[in-house]
Amino acid sequence: MTYDAIIIGGSFAGLSAALQLARARRSILIIDDGLRRNRFAAHSHGFLTQDGRPPSEIIASARSQLMRYDAVDWLDARAEMARRADKDEFHVIVKGESERVARRLILSTGVTDILPQLPGLKERWGRTVFHCPYCHGYELERGKIAVLATSSLSMHHALMLPDWGETTLLLNGSFEPDAGQLYQLAQRGVTVERCGIERLDGGDEQVDVILNDGRILKMDGLFTLPKTVIPVAFARQLGCTLDEGPLGNYLYTDATKATTVNGVFACGDVARAAGSVAMAVGDGAMAGVAAHRSLLFG
Ligand code: FAD
Ligand code: MG
Is pTM, for the whole model, over 0.90? Predict the structure, then answer.
């Protein structure tokens, strides 16, 4: 069968796009392999009516509401490839399955975080190590906060985080602030630590930064900026234009979330420089409506 739309990625952005299309009684297939970006966090914050709820519960509830609509199919699988066969015909290849065909394609694959290499960091990601102060800063109760620098971009983090607690910038050899930057840090009351870091330790409530000289900094949370990668192969196969963000490339879209390839829409983290659940849901709604209109009006 030919679906009206195939949606690759069934998380916040993809589910939101799907809901609009389902409500327009269009046939859709959602292909999802369940690797949501925030699966490491026990609680999600900052999304209306769902503040503090486990992200898995928000997704389960959205999915069960969506699946009540007719003409919505779901495939728990990884899409390997997508290509445009004709003006109104996209083919998606899924390992071990027959090719799936649709008239429109929505990419809502999210991004993958590439974490800094530091022993003890990845086990703490989403628990005491974070990237987004709006998501996880408040719960630190104005405690002690470390910013692990990865480049001079970490200045931004270091200057923001004093709004959430007493902040120490751990340079760890990644860059050296110039005189102007040191002045800005001092103005915000940020402590600068130059000693290299051996590893992170600590339980669920705090993170210990073990420095190379043997000192231990006891922190309530640590923030760092991971690089992000999108599944760039899709963009190449389809010919979508990319945009360059400070942390990684993302798919260029216009205000209706259309990519540069006719019939292909993109929403959520994959199509913005930095995202959140609320933004992914908003972008998804726009992409779903725009895909529907393009089915009607070409
Ligand atoms: P995702 O939620 O990442 O979902 C993408 C989906 O696409 C996944 O299910 C994935 O498996 C699927 N997929 C990808 N490629 C394929 C493929 N080829 N085939 C099939 N399926 C595929 N934001 C907040 O607003 N509040 C928070 O509290 C918060 N906490 C966070 C905590 C952590 C640790 C992290 C890393 C992020 C957090 N975020 C938070 C950000 C939030 O997770 C993202 O903004 C949001 O998940 C983006 O939604 P999305 O639908 O674009 O992508
Ligand atoms: Mg979350």
Answer: yes
